[in-house]
Amino acid sequence: MKTVRFYCFWVIGFLLVASCTRKPAQKETKVSEPPSQEQIPDQSEGWKIIEALTKAYGDNPNLIGDFIGSSRCPDFLEGRYFDGNTLVFQVWGDTTSARQTLEKTSGSKAFRIEQLTDSTFSEKQLQCLLDKLNSRFNSLPESKLKANMISWGSTAHYIEVIFIRNTPEARAEFRRLLMDSPAIRFFGPEQPVRNNTTGASEVYGICLYPEYTVYPDTADTASFILLNRSNGQITCGEHYFITYEGTDGQWYELPINTFANDIAYVLKPDSQHRFVARLYPAVNDNKPGRYRFFYEVSLESGENIRMMAEFRLTDDYEEARRAGKTPIPKTTGRNYVEVPQTDEQMVYQVVEEMPEFPGGMPALMEFIRKNLRHDKAETKVRVILQVVVDKEGNVTNPVVLRSVNSILDEEALRMVSLMPKWKPGGQAGKNRNVRFTFPVTFEPSGKGLQ
C-alpha cells in the first residue's frame, strides 16, 4: 500500500518588487549553503524610514511600504528599492530639494537618491506596465508563448520575463502579442546546456523506473515510480530535471519550468510514489530518442542520493499506443545501511590531489570573468557553485549552494557548461570523482547613485 505524508513549507518569491506566474512562483529547493563570512544585509534602518513615510504619505498606514503613487505621495517620488543595506529613492527633478523633504518627513538621512531620467524606469512606471502585461496575458489564448512563460515581475529598474526557452522567436512573439517596451528584459536558456550527469536507478533497495516503456514524442508528461524496498523510510520532494541525448552523443538539459513547491513526501518501507514530469513538447519540439529523469531522495541517515530513470520518446505512435507498463524491477537489497558504494559511485570531498582547472585557480577566475554575462546582475553579487569533477576531468553535477536569484543561478550554470576538462583529483595514485566548490562573482557596471 502506498503510504505518503505531506509536509509543506512556503518559500520566498524570487523577484524584488512584484512577480506573476501561471502558478505560485517559488524558488527551487537548494542544498544548504556552506559557511560564509558574508552577512545577510541589515535593512532595518531603511525599513524604519519606509514605515515613517508610509504614515506620512500612505493612504492606508497599515500597509507598510504602500505609498508610491498614493494620493498623498509627493509627485517627485516614484520608487524605492534596497541596494544591499541601503534604501534608495527614485526621484524626478531637483534631488537636493527631494532629499531635504524626505529627510524632514522620515527623520533620517540613511538613504540614497537616484535621479530618474528619460532612459530609466521607476517603480511606479514599472508597476503600470506590469498591470497591463498581466491583463494582456490573462486575455491571451493558450499558445506556445503562454506555455513558454515561467514567470515575470519587476526589479529595481526593469521588468524581467523568464522563458523556458529564451529564443529570438519567443522574444519576437512576446513583443508582437503582449508588450514591446525597452523596460523588458528576457531571461532563460538561449543555447542547449550540456549536462552529462548520471545517477542510480537502483540502490540500497530503492529504485526509480518509468511507468511505461516508451512515450510518444508529443507527450505532455511522462510518469515514474519511486519504489522503496529498503528497511527504512525515505524522503523525496517535487524538484526534478531531465536530460536528453544529443546527436553528438553528449547529454543536454531539457528546458522545463524549474520552479517547484517545497513539499516533502515520506515513503515507508514497501511503499511507492508516482511522479509526473512535464515535457513541454510545444516549447521544446522534443525529438525521438533517449531521455533521463533525475530525482533526489534522502535517507534517514541524512545521505542524499540522486536517482535516475532512463526512458524513450518515439515518433512511432502505434508503438507508443501499444506500450505496456514497465515490469517492477527486482531489487537487490533490503537494508541500505549495509550496502557500500562502489569506487565508481563514490564522490570524495577531500583527496590528496584536488581537481585543478587548466592553469590553476587564477585561470579559473579569469575564465569565469570572461564568460559570465555580468549585466544580468543589478549589483555586485556572488553565487556559490559546487561541481563534481569526475575521473576523466569532466565537470558534472553542477549545484547552486548559495543562490541570489533564479536568473543568476541559471547564468552561473550556463557558464559552467562551457568549461573545458579539468585535471582530475587523485587519491592513492588513482583518479577519483571529487566535489569542488568555487564562487562566481557578478560585477556589473555602476548605477550612478548619489
TrEMBL record:
Compartments where located: Cell inner membrane
Q: What residue stretches are annotated with the TonB C-terminal domain?
A: 382-443
PROSITE patterns, per this entry? PROKAR_LIPOPROTEIN
Bacterial Ig-like domain spans which residues? 212-311
Q: Cellular component GO terms, alphabetically?
A: plasma membrane protein complex
Q: What is the membrane topology listed in the Swiss-Prot or TrEMBL record?
A: Single-pass membrane protein
Q: Mind telling me which Gene3D superfamilies this protein's record contains?
A: 3.30.1150.10
Keyword Transmembrane attached: yes
The Gene Ontology biological process terms listed for this entry are: protein transport; transmembrane transport
Q: Does the keyword Cytoplasm apply?
A: no
Taxonomically, the superkingdom here is: Bacteria
UniProt keywords (A-Z) are:
Cell inner membrane, Cell membrane, Membrane, Protein transport, Transmembrane, Transmembrane helix, Transport
What GO MF annotations does this protein's record show?
energy transducer activity
| Homology family | Belongs to the TonB family.
According to UniProt, the name of this protein is: Energy transducer TonB
Q: Which organism is it from?
A: Phocaeicola barnesiae
